[in-house]
ABC transporter related protein
Amino acid sequence: MSRLFDIKNLTVKFNKGSFNALEKVNLYLKKGEILGILGESGGGKSTLANSMTLLNDRYTGEILYKGKELKSMNHGEKKIFSKEVQLIFQDPYSSLNPKMRLKDIILEGAFIHGLIPKNACNGLVKSLLDKVGLKESYLDRYPRELSGGERQKAAIARALALFPDVIIFDEATTNLDLVSQREILNIILELQKSGVTCIVISHNLPLINIISDRIIVINNGRIEEEGKTEDILTSPKSEYLKEILNSNYKL
Ligand SMILES: Nc1ncnc2c1ncn2[C@@H]1O[C@H](COP(=O)(O)OP(=O)(O)OP(=O)(O)O)[C@@H](O)[C@H]1O
């Protein structure tokens, strides 16, 4: 499997003289896999996701996407990158424009990138709704007229309208009830089958266990361990993982 991302010595320092949010992080993402990123609050997971999507460019080290360092990409390359790599946030309400109807929200990015002719809109938006399990009758709704789980599905449909190669889910199921969580997990597994590579960031070990091919544990800005899901859960090395596994979590 070829690598989509290759990250070398990624270091992020937000305030001069204070601690590093990320410290010499090295990791890769293989095409077709689901990579789980696990760690406690404040450990640096979102900083990693934001840096991998250039929402944060105040980093040192290298983030290579398909062999090209993100900050050295020219305008055209960055535009392609922003289509190919999508980020889904924890709070779908704040990431959806409250003044736009669902169909316009879903198609906005695809229009900006010139991906779809006007006459193909209806077909595309219906197939995207179907993929994420939203009813066609929701097309004219505003975000406030959707439940939390439905809003998260809408955010995924909007990302899918760009036919991305990679989707990073940053705590995307954290605020959802168990049924919605399960539905989003199933969507992610279906995405993997259709060739989309995914990163799932969470502090929820059962969720990461169900879905990931490989896991990285990141705390205090450092990678504490990395390996195939079954390997690191059966013989954990980090104190963090040992503690969770010794608590009430059962594999
Ligand atoms: N823009 C910023 N400016 C200053 N400090 C920041 C900024 N973003 C994050 N931090 C700090 O960097 C550290 C890592 O934060 P980050 O959000 O990456 O952690 P996280 O693992 O995603 O946490 P959570 O699971 O709670 O979302 C934290 O101490 C946070 O306060």
The chain has one domain: 3-248. The first helix runs from residue 45 to 52. The beta strands are 3-13, 20-30, 34-38, 59-65, 68-69, 85-88, 166-170, 197-202, 214-219, 222-228. The pocket of adenosine-5'-triphosphate is lined by residues 14, 21, 39, 41-47, 203 (CB under 6 Å).
